[in-house]
Amino acid sequence: MSIAIYPGSFDPITNGHLSILRRALEIFDEVVIAVAVNSEKKGLFSIAERMEMINTAARDLGLKGVSVDTFDGLLVDYVVNKGTNVVLRGLRALSDFDYEFQLALINRKLSRKVQTVFLMTDYKWLYVSSTIIKEAASLGGDINGLVPMVVRERLAERFPALRARLEAAANRNGHGNSSGGGND
Ligand code: ADP
Fold first, then answer.
1. Are residues 73 and 156 in the same domain?
2. pTM of the model
3. Which of 66, 82, 108, 114 would be a feasible disulfide site paired with 58, CB 3.0-4.6 Å?
4. pLDDT digits over 120-156, tens only?
């Protein structure tokens, strides 16, 4: 059974992440989304909230072979402990390349057993990052279609400006907009 570990912050998960996940499931039997605990980078959402959003999004999409976990310490140790040797990462434009290249090389230095596999993002998610989503949402920008429904709801709970916009839209339409949900 082939298992890939997809590590990251996922603060929060976006349709870009989900696109990589769906495509990886065409290659691997199981993908473990491993939410990294980073004591220096305090996220918007707690690790438990991030994991809950990932689980809900994967379930809503009917994805099979996904599990969600958390880890701290060295990624390569975690990967080996999970009984596999594959790290999955997504690549957007050139901006990701430098960092991802460094990360893959240091992990290779730390363990020759572990291989990093990259999937190139679909052009639809090229500009989507958790950071840009949080920024837009905090200013009341509707991020509909860029994140799963559960994330949109959680962001609206956090950001009054987004909440006000969604409530105004719901009042106009009789109910809320539907969300685009991670299609490739
Ligand atoms: P990290 O803090 O480790 O970069 P992220 O949650 O930001 O964690 O990203 C996890 C992985 O998902 C990284 O490999 C990143 O390049 C990839 N990723 C993030 N957004 C997208 C996207 N829109 N399309 C494809 N891959 C993405």
1. no
2. 0.92
3. 66
4. 999 999 999 999 999 999 999 999 999 999 999 999 9
Dist. CA 143–CA 166, nearest whole Å? 10
Ligand 1 within 6 A of CB of 128: yes
| CA dihedral for 116, 37, 123, 92, sign (positive or negative) | negative
When the pLDDT of each residue in the chain is averaged and rounded to a whole number, the result is 92
Same domain, 163 and 93: no
Ligand 1 centroid–CA 159 distance in Å is 23
Please indicate, yes or no, whether residues 112 and 153 belong to a single structural domain of this protein: no
Give 70-101 pLDDT, tens digit per residue: 999 999 999 999 999 999 999 997 778 889 99
Q: Check pocket membership of 9 for ligand 1, CB cut-off 6 A.
A: yes
Q: For residue 67, what is the enclosing H or E element?
A: strand 66-71
**How far is the C-alpha of 155 from the C-alpha of 66, rounded, in Å?**
23
Looking at the fold, whether 169 and 90 belong to one and the same domain comes out as no
Structural contact between residues 89 and 100, judged by C-beta atoms closer than 8 angstroms: yes
**Domain encompassing residue 159:** 130-173
Catalogue the active-site residues. 17, 41, 92, 130
Structure tokens at 112: 């020759």
Mean pLDDT of 38-51: 90
